[in-house]
Amino acid sequence: MDMVMMVYLFSFLLVISFVAFASKPSPVYGGLSLVVSGGLGCAIVVSLGSTFLGLIMFLVIFGGMLVVFGYTAAMSTEEYPESWVSNTVALGMLLFVLLLKLIWYFVLDKVEVATVIGLFDVVGNSYVSQDCGGVSLLYGCGGWILMFLGWILFMTICVVLEIVRGCD
Amino acid sequence: MSPYMLLLTCTSLLLGTTLTLASNHWLTAWMGLEINTLAMIPLMTYPNHSRSTESAIKYFLTQATASMMMMFAIIQNAWATNQWTLTQMSNNTASILMTLTLAIKLGLAPFHFWVPEVTQGIPLLSGMILLTWQKVAPVSIMYQISPSLNMKILTTLAILSTLTGGWGGLNQTHLRKILAYSSISHMGWTIIIMPINPNLALLNLFIYIIITTTIFLTLNLAQVTKIKSLANLWNKSTPMTMIIMITLMSLGSLPPLTGFMPKWLILQELVNNNNIATATLMAMSTLLNLFFYMRIIYTSTLTMFPTTNNSKLQWMYAQTKKTTMIPPLTVISSMLLPLTPLCLTLFQM
């Protein structure tokens, strides 16, 4: 049950970090809590056994894209950013926590603490590397899908460059 | 825009819709919609202006939210039913979420706010693509999963759409906003018939696309975006005033014209299914649309600008823009009513 407790802890922290960026601090801290929540999400995925998927998500999405693009862009906007100790943001956090409490109160009977039984074997160890199977399928018979996904990424970078390029 | 970028975006627009139309798997259908959204954005921001950039951002945020919800619905469905087939949307939660997502994508009534705002800020031809071509992929998905969609939600969305589409356009003076509200109203007509007879929904969308394309091409010829400027349209090209009149009458679904055909068939289908109150409500709220089309017709065709003409008479000279597509489109969008049986047969697949 060790793993279950880890997942429970990570899920709790994940919700808290959602509150942290939903209460709208300055983009710098918003980006920071987004990175933290993303990392926690990856930790949950890793704890549930998909180690490869979690690692790739963490390295590529959060390490590369979110930190480099989002966080540095947010850093460049403000000199004195508004953190969570500001009055409005603190009020926002209070409201969101109250909302969470309310939702928790209403769904408490209906939702159990979710553990995916299929991912654990009888002694509580998770099966390893289901995600590796998915990746090999993507590179095998799903090759055309991979090509389309690559096209989407290529198109996205072109679109972003076209928009931020400005007048010609 | 550089020609390479234009090629890339136009190809991707075609690719996205084609991918959605051709796919049998939820992931590829979703990918097609994403490609469509992304490819549309450079076309919107092309004359680099803060208004068009604002519109593109609004469009992107709405569509990204819708895509995220759609992915959530797809995963919910895959989780509950263990398959990714497009037509098997049997999970109830997923089906409701998908209905709402497609409503956001199409701009149906409680989620319609982005349509006028986005259309107002972008150039006419981009607006034409936004209001016509971008509707094809979501409607095709809706067509394929129409048996498993939630009928109560769909009907509510549809009635609200025709009402807001008629009501919202009443006091507008900008043509793009009026056409956006007209789009909302027509999407309502498309959706009301979707659970009952999906083929009629396709027919309605097809005819709406043709009529709207005609209007946008005509407006683009004279580069007018306000009703007021339409009073000088006769100076640019006199036949265009007649074309705008006939096409708008058709869009407002007056009987001898094409636009009457889908409304007629939809009303008949609704009445056959004992939805008499719904049919009445839809028909009445479309009259509001006809009212603001009449205002455009009055300004463009029946009056002249209340000053002496200061500019040269441009209709005497050859047009610099291509007008090849306007006459055939006008003919299709006004004279298709006698071919109703043919159209019905074409769409009864």
TrEMBL record, chain A:
Primary gene name: NADH6
Organism: Phascolarctos cinereus
First-tier enzyme category under EC: translocase
Signal peptide location: 1-22
Keywords, sorted A to Z: Electron transport, Membrane, Mitochondrion, NAD, Respiratory chain, Signal, Translocase, Transmembrane, Transmembrane helix, Transport, Ubiquinone
Similarity remark: Belongs to the complex I subunit 6 family.
Record carries keyword Iron: no
Function: Core subunit of the mitochondrial membrane respiratory chain NADH dehydrogenase (Complex I) which catalyzes electron transfer from NADH through the respiratory chain, using ubiquinone as an electron acceptor. Essential for the catalytic activity and assembly of complex I.
This protein's name: NADH-ubiquinone oxidoreductase chain 6
Catalytic activity: a ubiquinone + NADH + 5 H(+)(in) = a ubiquinol + NAD(+) + 4 H(+)(out)
Entries under Gene3D superfamilies matching the protein: NADH-ubiquinone/plastoquinone oxidoreductase chain 6, subunit NuoJ
EC number(s) from the headed UniProt entry: 7.1.1.2
Gene Ontology CC annotations of this record: mitochondrial membrane
Membrane-spanning ranges: 38-71, 83-107, 144-164
Membrane topology: Multi-pass membrane protein
Localization (cell): Mitochondrion membrane
From TrEMBL, chain B:
GO cellular-component term (any): respiratory chain complex I
Compartments it resides in: Mitochondrion inner membrane
Recorded topology in the membrane: Multi-pass membrane protein
Reactions accelerated catalytically: a ubiquinone + NADH + 5 H(+)(in) = a ubiquinol + NAD(+) + 4 H(+)(out)
Listed Pfam families: NADH_dehy_S2_C, Proton_antipo_M
Signal peptide: 1-22
Annotated ranges, domain NADH:quinone oxidoreductase/Mrp antiporter transmembrane: 23-287
Name of the protein described by the UniProt record: NADH-ubiquinone oxidoreductase chain 2
Species for this entry: Phascolarctos cinereus
